[in-house]
Design a protein that fits this description.
mainly alpha; 6 helices; globular
């Protein structure tokens, strides 16, 4: 497009945030980022104060359980669910399920139960890893169909902007 057709981020933000699909996506994306930032940054504290270990290898073990179960369990499961019920619905199911999968973590007091519950959370997170970008593409496609304008860059910028807010929140709260 020509220079005269371009819209700045600040100009596009209020208009974009009137779209319920982009709002739902941004809130879900930001929630995922909050969870990821807090989970990763809390791991050393979890290891020291909940499990009672000063061994840095414990963090590695817990992280490995998470990653293995995302890759082996979460991604195949949520890919299948996404094909069966559609990206949007599977993404909704997965984010709700993942939220509830954090509850058992409150009862973990040792490395074994922590690893088990973190692995189960990994299965839920697989949903977000698999379906986050296809859902974003669906949101963008819907906007393009309704408005006739292709402004993917603006929406990617909005997603990135809100995806960075959790880092600020974590810094302030910690």
């Amino acid at each position: 497009s020509e220079k005269g057709d371009s819209v700045s981020f600040i100009e596009a933000l209020p208009t974009s945030l009137k779209d319920r699909n982009i709002i739902a996506y941004v809130i879900t994306y930001m929630g995922h980022q909050v969870m990821t930032v807090f989970m990763l940054s809390s791991l050393p504290y979890w290891t020291k104060y909940i499990i009672g270990s000063s061994d840095p290898e414990v963090e590695t073990i817990l992280s490995a359980f998470f990653l293995i179960f995302v890759l082996v369990g979460g991604i195949p499961l949520w890919s299948y669910v996404g094909k069966k019920v559609g990206n949007k619905r599977a993404f909704q199911y997965g984010t709700i399920v993942t939220t509830f999968l954090f509850i058992p973590l409150y009862f973990a007091t040792d490395i074994l139960t922590s690893a088990l519950f973190i692995a189960i959370i990994g299965i839920g997170i697989g949903c977000i890893w698999v379906l986050m970008y296809p859902c974003f593409s669906d949101v963008i496609d819907d906007i393009v169909i309704r408005t006739g304008k292709r402004e993917e860059g603006i929406y990617t910028g909005i997603r990135t902007f809100f995806g960075r807010i959790p880092v600020i929140i974590q810094g302030v709260l910690f």
